[in-house]
Amino acid sequence: MKDLKEIIGDYQLFLDNIFFKIEDIDLEVDDCELDHICYRVENIDEYNLKKEELSTLSKLLTESTVNGRNIATFKLNNPIEYKNRKIYLIELPAPKEEKNYKSGLEHIEFVTKLPLEKIVARYPHLAFETYGINKRINADVTLKLGEFSLRFHNLSLEDVIKGERPKISQANSSKNNHHKNSKHQKARNHGRPKHHKK
Fold this sequence. Notes:
Elements (H helix, E strand, L loop, with lengths): L3 H5 L2 H14 L8 E8 L3 H11 L3 E9 L2 E14 L2 E9 L10 E8 L4 H7 L18 E5 L2 E6 L3 H35 L7
Parallel strand pairs: 1-4, 5-7
Antiparallel strand pairs: 1-5, 2-3, 3-4, 6-7
């Protein structure tokens, strides 16, 4: 069985590179939770392979369709330990058809207690991308750091997943109830005598 570094690469070096860039631009993240890291793949075959490999070391929390492609989220049995942080979640997006991605670790995501607008305003010299700041579920802001990037959210990915599960269960329950009611109504109609016009 492969270990995590064999599956996603040298995550310690990846985190060293990102945190070096974070320190270089004086971005304060000490009070933020490092929620998860993202591993990109080049094609759907690699996505399925990495999903299978990660399943040997973690639990699949969810696999959902976002913007036309699947995104799988895994919770590691043993977290990545980096300095004083523990990182349990790995995000694995399938590639979008119209985009080309390089395989490897790409970005990290932080959870902050601060309003996202305040983070952007605090660092006017940094080119935050704010296209996701008005998202209905777990809004975000993104900062590109060369070949890497980081994002800030107000909710952890695991909390978002937990919040979505009741909605999915409720939707499935409604579908099942509708199906049962339809079958019951058909049975009742089948047992009724037919009235013929004279």
